[in-house]
User: Which sequence fits this backbone?
């Protein structure tokens, strides 16, 4: 590692993730893992779902946020925190901050879904709206940080990656001998932490990501051998519209076997499938993993597959599928 | 016991319920138990939810149905099965039957919700519609039974009661030192099995039921000291419109401390509360337990409360609450 890299920019290892698990264990929820024979019959594989939609704040993001805040406490860093987020990281950071007696400000795109804006506020965060571009999100956050807040980025940070990786640590413990694991890919926090954990704890497993074709910056980056820093984003999966992080992309390059892309109709069909067979409403971003299994059937056929359902925060008024 | 009583009419004990647990253990899902500090702060008690909405077929009913079918196998009774049901018992029996290579016919009221009709069919059952009265349900079933099917009643049967009671066995194992346990009350299968299990396994706990004012036949029966056999039913809680069973009422009289009634607006508000804080969509019948905690706050204040969320089968098109 070059000497000028901060700890936040260094690639974490399994020991860092296990340390995160001990650090946040009492604060997070150990989420259930479920399977359904009728669903398996249709999909042609033995599918196990790790239900992070039932995590506190309704998404895995609470793991990373809790770890980042706990690390601030450990290092004696006082002060309020801030971030930019389409919603789930914002709500997660707000709750993690409030349980550690810190205030939290969240820069959110104006087109964020209502449920996620309310969740940030319910969990004690202050919302600051911005235009829905990556540049405006970062500019909004920079202004708040200039005012004295500690920035907690949503994914491109070792503490966040370690926190998210704890989902895969639990999963590998709850469900033995998985042949394939897969998670959605947005900014890359969940997939990078999960990949490091899977490599160490279930080395025989293949690690896949799932990404909407309309936000396939990571698949394109892997294809080109270098991270692209913009992409014409157009997807219903509001949690996956971010560009993959720098640190995250490095980890993905080294640890993820393949990022599978899925269609928009595949995502909404997958939401209907999960509602029908598991009676869970999951957000479009989460449904990408089920869409990947349906649209890339041959890749999964006959295997024992572990998929992380990343979140369940969506607006009930306009469900994008026919139940 | 009078000699002319069949085993199905005899009050089961904890040994019968533990035997049911061993019998159905591999087929059912051990459902998760979750709690949320923000919800607890609002409710004024420490609430733990046993999520039978995440049981196979989306309701606790799969426990009783699985036990009843497995008992037929044990006794060497061959043949197809039939029942009447507003939906959850029907879907549960259909799946339990099909996994044991039996056909299943389900008499359903014409006003059953669409999701539940589809669920019966998806799980391999044949639907026979009838007019939405208790008399027409029973008449429809009698006709099918006359044709040679084995009737599996939805609640008034020892095997069903034992199966449902396994939910409380698991709950008492997953969550220590509960001061109060409560479940919804419809026909009384869940509450009666749960009450027997709770009395044996957590004898210090108070056992409550929750019932809509618009279907408060059990509360009225307890008040009058004898089971009423009709009631002017008017409630959104479609799973609780049945009249309490004969065997079930006896068990409730002896083992349940109180049945708390709740309003219709309390039920829909409770659905919104569970969606907001736990990101689970639960059916109105399930929401009665949360409504009871909100509408009878003083009864629960300061206690550790275990509530069984009975099911998650509802039509998404017309959600009865504002998220």
Assistant:
């Amino acid at each position: 590692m070059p000497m000028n890299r901060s700890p936040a920019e260094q690639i974490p290892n399994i020991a860092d993730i296990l340390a995160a698990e001990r650090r946040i264990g009492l604060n997070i929820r150990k989420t259930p893992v479920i399977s359904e024979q009728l669903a398996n019959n249709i999909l042609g594989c033995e599918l196990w779902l790790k239900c992070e939609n039932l995590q506190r704040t309704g998404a895995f993001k609470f793991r990373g946020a809790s770890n980042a805040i706990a690390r601030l406490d450990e290092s004696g860093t006082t002060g309020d925190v801030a971030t930019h987020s389409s919603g789930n990281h914002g709500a997660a950071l707000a709750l993690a901050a409030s349980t550690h007696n810190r205030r939290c400000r969240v820069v959110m795109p104006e087109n964020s879904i209502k449920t996620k804006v309310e969740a940030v506020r319910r969990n004690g965060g202050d919302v600051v709206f911005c235009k829905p571009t990556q540049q405006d999100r970062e500019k909004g956050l920079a202004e708040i940080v200039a005012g004295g807040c500690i920035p907690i980025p949503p994914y491109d940070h070792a503490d966040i990656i370690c926190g998210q990786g704890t989902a895969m640590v639990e999963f590998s413990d709850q469900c033995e001998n998985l042949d394939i694991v897969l998670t959605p890919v947005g900014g890359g926090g969940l997939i990078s932490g999960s990949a490091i954990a899977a490599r160490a704890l279930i080395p025989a497993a293949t690690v896949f990501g799932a990404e909407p074709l309309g936000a396939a910056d990571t698949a394109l980056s892997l294809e080109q051998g270098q991270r692209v820093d913009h992409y014409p984003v157009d997807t219903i999966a509001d949690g996956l519209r971010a560009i993959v992080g720098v640190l995250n992309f490095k980890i993905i390059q080294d640890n993820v076997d393949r990022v599978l892309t899925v269609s928009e109709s595949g995502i909404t069909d997958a939401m209907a499938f999960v509602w029908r067979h598991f009676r869970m409403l999951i957000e479009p971003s989460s449904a990408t993993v089920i869409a990947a299994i349906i649209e890339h059937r041959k890749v999964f056929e006959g295997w024992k597959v572990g998929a992380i359902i990343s979140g369940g925060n969506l607006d009930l008024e306009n469900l994008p599928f026919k139940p």
Summary: Chain B has 13 helices and ten strands. Strands of chain B lie at 33-34, 46-51, 81-84, 104-109, 126-130, 150-151, 180-184, 206-212, 258-262, 304-309.
